[in-house]
Amino acid sequence: MKKIQILTIGQTEEIINRLKKDDKSAMDELFCSYYPRLYRFSKSIIKIENEIEDVLQNVFVKIWLNRQKIDNTETFNAYVFTITRNEVLNLIRDKIRDKSFKDELFNLSVAEEYNTQSPVEYDEIKERIDNTVARLPKKRQHVFILSRTEGLSNKEIAQKLDISEKTVEDHITHAIKYIKSSLKDMGIISILYFYLFI
């Protein structure tokens, strides 16, 4: 398997500068670097592979259309993954009334014990998740955000924080267990949004 190239701050800055000059080859480089990670990230959320291509196409189109507004190289990685998460959320919002889509999503993503209905607003769910993540121990919170928001692999997080991959796995496992537990009373929609968030 080809190793995924993670751009350095300097490389990212250089690519962003070229993007702002309408250099489409810079977009190709971004695509090569980010597509595999964004695909993995999207698949961990929605799990319906035939929907992921459209999601990622929209992500890269948005990056290109908004290239002149990108002004913070250090937060660019989080910016890209936030766009991706929002695109997946938009897809679910658009298609959640489609029974075949909903059934497939539920079957692939949601445990049977969570299969209940609850008319909870997405903003309320996101606020609950944000508050729950904020209550995690600082180290666990940092690991969780690097994994789920910035899309880093366990190996990349371990190298970045100078800890073992096993420690990273333990932090993520305990964080997910804690967050899921906090959402049980909110029903199926909250669990779906949780899958979007992570």
Secondary structure topology:
Layout: H1 9-20, H2 24-46, H3 49-65, H4 76-95, H5 99-109, H6 122-134, H7 138-148, H8 154-161, H9 165-183, H10 188-197
Helix pairs in contact: 1-2, 2-3, 2-4, 3-4, 6-9, 6-10, 7-9, 8-9
What level of helicity do the residues show?
Answer: over 70%
Give average pLDDT, whole number. Answer: 79
Would you identify the regions where 5 or more consecutive residues have pLDDT less than 50?
110-120
Total tally of structural domains: 2
Name the structural class: mainly alpha
CATH class of the largest domain: Mainly Alpha
CATH fold call of the largest domain: Rna Polymerase Sigma Factor, Chain: A
Task: Round the Cα radius of gyration to an integer and report it.
Answer: 18 Å
* Succession of helices and strands: HHHHHHHHHH
Number of strands: 0
Q: What is the overall silhouette?
A: globular
% residues in beta strands: under 5%
Tally of helical runs:
10
Q: What is the assigned CATH homologous superfamily of the largest domain? A: RNA polymerase sigma factor, region 2, helix turn helix motif
Largest sheet: none
Task: Give an overview in words.
With 198 residues, this protein is mostly helical. The protein folds into 2 domains: 1-97, Rna Polymerase Sigma Factor, Chain: A, CATH 1.10.1740; 110-198, Winged helix-like DNA-binding domain superfamily/Winged helix DNA-binding domain (Arc Repressor Mutant, subunit A). The chain is 73% helix and 0% strand. Helix 6 (122-134) crosses helix 10. The protein is globular. Residues 110-120 have low confidence and may be disordered.
